[in-house]
Amino acid sequence: MKAIEITKPGVMQVVEREMPRLGKDDVLLKIKYVGFCGSDLSTFLGKNPMVQYPRIPGHEISAVIEAVGENVPADFQVGLGATVVPYTNCGHCTSCRKKRFNACRYNQTLGVQRDGAMTEYLAVPWQKILVDVALTDVQLALVEPLTVGFHAIDNAQVTDLDTVVVFGCGMIGSGAIVRAHLRGATVIAVDIDDSKLETAKKLGATHLINSKVQNLHEELEKLTHGNGPSVVIEAAGNPITYRAAIEEVAFAGKVVCIGYAAAEIAFPTKLWVQKEMEIMGSRNANPTDFEAVIKYLKNAGLDETLLISNIVSVDEAAGAMQKWSEDPGKILKILVRF
């Protein structure tokens, strides 16, 4: 079968791999679409410390059930559309014992610590399969990337009383904007790209700030009546936005960090103490986040083309990744069609 492989930094190619073996508890999936994630871009650029090469990327999955193992429950029928929870969890570490499986100490995500879904077929334990007949093939591929932003908003326990600032309106930030809007919060989207900000508005952002041409602090002061936002979501992974999150969040506010910054960041600890702020990380997503995204995609009437920058074939994937690496700020989501 065909597979897309990142052989080494800067080199992506189509290779032949053997068909996966179907275990008794496995579901064999015929892949329809797989999304390129920011982690895949980092792998391509040689900046992902969790990856060993060669690596098959991909964990944003749309597929159809091709076959099932003998121990798989009857709900998983051949021909049904499906997506995948792409993380492993050990069940024994401190995070797993608290039911926070997304932050398992020993997690291995498809396409990162282990080979991913950019293949024609993939065998997955049935416990990691989510079946939904109402979603289209394209929608199924958008479930996992949206869950990460949903999870960050859940971590912050956002309500309709909150004003939420989202730094970075890429795919992860878009998920946070959607979830905060669904919770009834006032959402302020911050980015340096006007097209992403316009998409953010369509997804539910109440206010838009282009921090490249507007004074971020002054705009936030006006929009929050001098109080600052009660919740800040850092989804850009930039030292500038990390520092801005600490500086702009309200007293007794919350900062939720999703993005990985390439460099170490120095923070003014005085603000930590004076504001008595909560600073938390947000990693991956839990099953309830997947359920919430699926419900949203079924009921919201979302035009998913808002979130998709390009759909390419397997043979076009390497070229699309190269273009993305040269201008990452313009891309929301690239889907590879199998």
UniProtKB/TrEMBL annotation:
<feature type="domain" description="Alcohol dehydrogenase-like N-terminal">
    <location>
        <begin position="23"/>
        <end position="129"/>
    </location>
</feature>
<dbReference type="InterPro" id="IPR011032">
    <property type="entry name" value="GroES-like_sf"/>
</dbReference>
<protein>
    <submittedName>
        <fullName>Zinc-binding alcohol dehydrogenase family protein</fullName>
    </submittedName>
</protein>
<dbReference type="Pfam" id="PF08240">
    <property type="entry name" value="ADH_N"/>
</dbReference>
<dbReference type="Pfam" id="PF00107">
    <property type="entry name" value="ADH_zinc_N"/>
</dbReference>
<dbReference type="GO" id="GO:0016491">
    <property type="term" value="F:oxidoreductase activity"/>
</dbReference>
<feature type="domain" description="Alcohol dehydrogenase-like C-terminal">
    <location>
        <begin position="172"/>
        <end position="297"/>
    </location>
</feature>
<dbReference type="InterPro" id="IPR036291">
    <property type="entry name" value="NAD(P)-bd_dom_sf"/>
</dbReference>
<dbReference type="InterPro" id="IPR013149">
    <property type="entry name" value="ADH-like_C"/>
</dbReference>
<dbReference type="InterPro" id="IPR050129">
    <property type="entry name" value="Zn_alcohol_dh"/>
</dbReference>
<dbReference type="InterPro" id="IPR013154">
    <property type="entry name" value="ADH-like_N"/>
</dbReference>
<keyword id="KW-0560">Oxidoreductase</keyword>
